[in-house]
């Protein structure tokens, strides 16, 4: 470091004295003075605590905001049930489950409908034909009722020839009221159509069905 000459220092003191600045006292080295001031201020800055920033002044007419709570934050309130996560979902709506359970059964029934089906025999039996068309007048067992008896051999006694019996059933007695019919030599003589209410079954029963009913009356009653 360069040393200041004495004559310059002397001139500086005289000048300061003339200005009333205390030129008689020796002038401290600038570096030392700055160093001492920094050293004196450093402990003060280290010991002084940091002051909290002052709150900003409230503006006139402004609504004060909520006070900042001090201390640890309060725990969050639990979520209600309707916003909670229900967990993993299957992705299938609940109303689809019954349909999925029924589908296999429906598939079995659907495929079975294409299989070979055996329909019940719808062909009427002679007994069934007699019950349906004759029993109301001649009795369930052929014992007679509104009409004459046809069981117990009565049909054979009246019509020895089976074809005459078939013709009588085909034509009926609605047009023969009061007329005798059957074998004139039968015991008690011929019968007489008194009611005239027996219809002709031509067109109601087939020829084969009429013959079945006649055979049933002659042989099974």
Helix-strand blueprint:
Blueprint: H1 6-18, H2 30-47, H3 96-112, H4 126-133, H5 135-138, H6 154-158, H7 162-171, E1 180-181, E2 191-192, H8 207-219
Antiparallel strand pairs: 1-2
Summary, kept brief:
This protein is mostly helical.
Instruction: Tell me the distance between the termini.
Output: 161 Å
Classify the secondary structure makeup into a structural class: mainly alpha
Question: Could you name the ranges where pLDDT drops below 50 across 5 or more consecutive residues?
Answer: 27-40, 42-48
Largest sheet, if any?
2 strands, antiparallel
- The H-and-E topology, N to C, reads as HHHHHHHEEH
Describe the protein.
It is a single chain. It contains eight helices and two strands; from the N terminus they run H-H-H-H-H-H-H-E-E-H. With 221 residues, the chain is an all-alpha fold. Strands 1-2 form a two-stranded antiparallel sheet.
List descriptors.
single chain, 221 residues, mainly alpha, two-stranded antiparallel sheet, 8 helices, 2% strand
């Amino acid at each position: 470091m360069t040393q200041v000459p004495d004559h310059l220092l002397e001139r500086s003191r005289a000048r300061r004295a003339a200005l009333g600045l205390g030129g008689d006292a020796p002038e401290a080295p600038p570096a030392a003075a700055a160093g001492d001031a920094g050293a004196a201020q450093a402990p003060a800055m280290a010991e002084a605590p940091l002051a909290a920033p002052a709150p900003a002044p409230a503006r006139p007419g402004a609504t004060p905001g909520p006070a900042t709570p001090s201390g640890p934050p309060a725990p969050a309130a639990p979520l209600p049930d309707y916003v909670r996560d229900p967990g993993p979902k299957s992705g299938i709506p609940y109303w689809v489950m019954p349909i999925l359970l029924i589908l296999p059964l429906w598939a079995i029934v659907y495929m079975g409908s294409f299989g070979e089906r055996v329909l019940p025999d719808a062909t009427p039996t002679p007994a069934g034909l007699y019950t349906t068309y004759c029993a109301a007048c001649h009795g369930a067992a052929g014992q007679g009722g509104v009409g004459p008896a046809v069981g117990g051999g009565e049909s054979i006694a009246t019509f020895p020839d089976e074809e005459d019996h078939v013709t009588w059933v085909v034509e009926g007695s609605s047009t023969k009221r009061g007329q005798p019919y059957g074998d004139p030599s039968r015991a008690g003589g011929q019968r007489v159509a008194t009611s005239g209410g027996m219809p002709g079954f031509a067109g109601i029963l087939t020829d084969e069905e009429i013959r079945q009913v006649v055979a049933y009356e002659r042989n099974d009653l």
